[in-house]
Amino acid sequence: MKNRMQRSNLLVTTTLLGFIFTVANSMRFDLKSGRTKCISDDIKSNSMTVGKYSVVNPNEGYPLPDSHKITVRVSSPNGNGHHVEEHVDSGHFAFVASDSGDYTTCFATPDHKPETVVTIEFDWKSGVAAKDWSKVAKKGQIEVMEFELKKLYDTVTSIYDEMYYLREREEEMHTLNTSTNSKMAGLSFLSLLVCLSVAGLQLWHLKTYFERKKLL
């Protein structure tokens, strides 16, 4: 009974980890000549991020034509370039995020007549998913269960950091909402005061007009 429970727990843990670690920005998309496509990912500061991209050769077995060479640029939320490659068919990048925010990877294709379609494969991982766990297991020569627990620990740590980051963002939004509500309340009071002042001036003007015409 005890062995069954241990096997069941191990199966659940492995399944959960398998689900968590497959969550990554792995995609394949088409891009026409002279077009640009940008992909963003919200990355926390001090998080590792790695990316790999390649152009699918439309004529397998033959050299890739120049019309299918691309320009790739990876930039931070502040616009700083972390990776720039021009006229390439494949490449990769890896860096540690210095700031929290949206990091952007842009792919651009050259102008070509007639118009062609370039197919690009892009794999982008960050945080725990960016770690090469196969090398960690081989280097440390650790047991399977210890290896899974290490992955689970790092995953829980990553989730905790993400929750803390979201809490900070929520507090910032709460402060912004409070400030906005206060300003709106002041603006509403000022609008009411202006309306009352205008109404008072209109009544005073009408009263003066009727007195002048000796209607009152």
Automatic annotation (TrEMBL):
<dbReference type="GO" id="GO:0016020">
    <property type="term" value="C:membrane"/>
</dbReference>
<feature type="transmembrane region" description="Helical">
    <location>
        <begin position="184"/>
        <end position="204"/>
    </location>
</feature>
<feature type="domain" description="GOLD">
    <location>
        <begin position="36"/>
        <end position="151"/>
    </location>
</feature>
<keyword id="KW-0812">Transmembrane</keyword>
<comment type="similarity">
    <text>Belongs to the EMP24/GP25L family.</text>
</comment>
<keyword id="KW-0472">Membrane</keyword>
<protein>
    <recommendedName>
        <fullName>GOLD domain-containing protein</fullName>
    </recommendedName>
</protein>
<dbReference type="InterPro" id="IPR015720">
    <property type="entry name" value="Emp24-like"/>
</dbReference>
<dbReference type="InterPro" id="IPR009038">
    <property type="entry name" value="GOLD_dom"/>
</dbReference>
<keyword id="KW-0732">Signal</keyword>
<keyword id="KW-1133">Transmembrane helix</keyword>
<dbReference type="Pfam" id="PF01105">
    <property type="entry name" value="EMP24_GP25L"/>
</dbReference>
